[in-house]
Design a protein that fits this description.
By secondary structure, the protein is α/β, with parallel strands linked by helices. It has a single domain, classed as Rossmann fold (3-Layer(aba) Sandwich), CATH 3.40.50.150. Helix content is about 45%, strand content about 20%. A seven-stranded mixed beta sheet has the order 3-2-1-4-5-7-6, with helices on both faces. Helix 7 links the parallel strand 4 and strand 5. It is globular. About 40% of the residues are buried. The model has no long low-confidence stretch (mean pLDDT about 90). The structure holds S-adenosylmethionine (SAM).
């Protein structure tokens, strides 16, 4: 179990990093993923479209890259939650309502998206509030994954679905592995540093990917937290995995 002191230190670290890079985050993300992020998020959205998705929580929404795409799904009402003030500010700045508003001191939410500050480990929502929860490149940063997974289960309605995108390297030597490692250890931190001028942030990114557990372990953690139908798919060219899990339909 993660102690309250460790959790608070982790919150300080990640908030510092994401507040620092917020203004250039989206541009850098496209650059370091060589544009593939769009394809990976499209794969996730295709899965979301297959299940009931009128109430969606986009956890660790950051600047809202995925949140905005989810809000385009017919009838979907999306809540984007993130602890970083600067990432949320950037997310709101990208709302058309903000761009056309004369009063730039306020950043109104759009009707189909609500951005809210909060942590995955203590979600500020009632039980069974959402049909779908998405997390893209968020779980690597969580201070306590087990607490976050249990909270996600709590706020999902019965038979609700969880979709997670995350970077994970192949554990076993094989085709593509040296290229993956070269990309994560050398190319990604260098591009991130050049694009934002923040070396620490992209060293952090490299380290959290390099130390991240293999997908089988994340699946086990999701099952231990209570998710069923847990599975994962490695997305081409192999550095990103899409996890899926469901809340038991009998959980009334
Ligand atoms: C790499 S960004 C991903 C942003 C967005 N989902 C995307 O796809 O671009 C990771 C986000 O996780 C957020 N984060 C870090 N710790 C968190 C926590 N404990 N609970 C929720 N979000 C957290 C950060 O503030 C940051 O915005």
């Amino acid at each position: 179990m993660t102690s309250p002191t460790e959790i608070s230190a982790r919150y300080d670290l990640t908030n510092g990093i994401f507040n620092d890079i917020a203004a250039r985050y989206e541009r850098t993300n496209t650059l370091v993923s060589i544009g593939l992020n769009r394809l990976w998020q499209r794969r996730l959205i295709r899965q979301v479209q297959k299940v009931p998705h009128l109430r969606i929580l986009d956890l660790a929404c950051g600047t809202g890259t995925l949140t905005r795409k989810l809000a385009r799904l017919a009838g979907a009402q999306v809540t984007g939650l993130d602890p970083s003030d600067s990432m949320l500010k950037e997310a709101r700045r990208r709302n058309p309502e903000y761009r056309t508003s004369a009063d730039k001191s306020s950043t109104p939410d759009r009707p189909d998206i609500v951005y809210q500050k909060g942590y995955a480990e203590s979600l500020p929502f009632a039980d069974k509030s959402f049909q779908v929860i998405t997390v893209s490149y968020g779980i690597r940063n969580f201070a306590d994954r087990d607490a976050a997974f249990r909270q996600a289960l709590r706020v999902l309605e019965p038979a609700g679905n969880l979709f997670i995108l995350e970077f994970t390297l192949k554990a076993k030597p094989g085709a593509g592995m040296p290229i993956q490692r070269f990309y994560i250890h050398r190319v990604l931190p260098l591009l991130g540093w050049l694009s934002t001028g923040k070396k620490d942030a992209y060293d952090y990114l490299r380290n959290t990917i390099a130390w991240f557990p293999p997908p089988q372990m994340i699946c086990r953690e999701l099952e231990e937290a209570g998710f069923v139908q847990v599975s994962y798919t490695r997305l081409s060219p192999g550095v990103v995995v899409l996890f899926t899990g469901q809340k038991n339909g009998d959980d009334k």
